[in-house]
Design goal:
Elements: H1 2-10, H2 20-29, H3 33-58, H4 60-65, H5 80-98, H6 104-120, H7 126-132, H8 135-161, H9 170-187, H10 189-200, H11 205-217, H12 227-238, H13 245-274
Helix pairs in contact: 1-3, 2-10, 2-11, 3-13, 5-6, 8-10, 9-10, 9-11, 9-13, 10-11, 11-13
Length: about 280
């Protein structure tokens, strides 16, 4: 369970479409789809590596104990149509980015193809598809955006502007990522990225990607840090699982500082090797 919630944040660093925060950062960075992924691949690998080392050590006893082997089942058919559609959608993200079209259209195309096939095979219903869109959650995200805009327009932006460092050297990137991580845990990662992107975009894509590291890795410290963690907590409770706040926080303290610092270092190296 903890791997699921941690990686829903840290493992979403790679692609512009991996997270809602990534989409916002991608729009502000001025980078192409492939350059964004190229700059983030090393920080992504580093963050996942830290997660693996810490979780493997903390839960060593449980992992070594093993689990009851599942009952033997017949061979599972490869979902070829779904895999091809997802692959074409990813290719669509790259193509739409190259020609200046919003990648949301590629995502919509992939979703419509999968939905149409499921409806044709009578494996779902229109009501189920609408339910899968998560309209209440979308309304929650919209409300967050409106609240943040109001707060930013009434003084928060000017207050934070004095805290955001200028430049793209390693100390500046570390400071930007740290500020983003703190703000994400205070007000949630979506409002944090909405507030910080306008302040860091003038410094270039390096600062924008440092914000992204902060708002994607930092939220693993608290329940309220990210939208993904809020959803995770609701789902595990619906399935009768209890989450210990102390254990969650202890894991966050073990993972977040190390992962954030090393990922920023990896980003700084990528910026020098590839260029922003």
């Amino acid at each position: 369970m903890y791997a699921c919630t941690h990686l829903s944040n840290t493992a979403s660093l790679l692609l512009p479409v991996s997270n809602l925060t990534n989409l916002l950062a991608f729009a502000a960075s001025g980078l192409s789809f492939t350059r964004f992924a190229g700059l983030m691949v090393l920080p992504w690998l580093v963050a996942i590596g830290v997660e693996y080392v810490v979780l493997r050590r903390v839960f060593a006893a449980e992992l070594d104990a093993g689990a009851q082997a599942p009952s033997a089942a017949g061979p599972t058919e490869l979902p070829l149509f779904a895999l091809v559609t997802v692959g074409c959608t990813l290719a669509g993200f790259v193509l739409t980015s190259a020609v200046g079209i919003n990648p949301a259209w590629a995502a919509l195309g992939g979703a419509l193809v999968l939905a149409a096939r499921a409806l044709a095979q009578r494996r779902t219903t229109p009501a189920a598809i609408v339910g899968a869109a998560g309209l209440p959650f979308l309304a929650f995200v919209l409300a967050l955006g409106i609240v943040v805009r109001a707060v930013v327009d009434n003084g928060l932006a000017s207050a934070l502007a004095h805290l955001v460092p200028h430049g793209t050297g390693l100390p500046a990137l570390l400071a930007v990522a740290g500020l983003a991580a703190v703000l994400a845990n205070v007000v949630n990662n979506l409002p944090a990225v909405l507030v910080l992107l306008p302040l860091t975009a003038p410094a270039g894509p390096g600062a924008v990607l440092a914000v992204l590291l902060g708002v994607n890795i930092g939220p693993n410290l608290t329940y309220a840090g990210s939208l993904a963690t809020l959803l995770w907590r609701r789902i595990v409770r619906e399935h009768g699982a209890e989450v210990d706040l102390r254990e969650f926080t202890r894991l966050g303290l073990l993972v977040v500082p190390a992962a954030l610092v090393l990922a920023v270092l990896a980003l700084w190296m990528s910026l020098h090797a590839i260029g922003g």
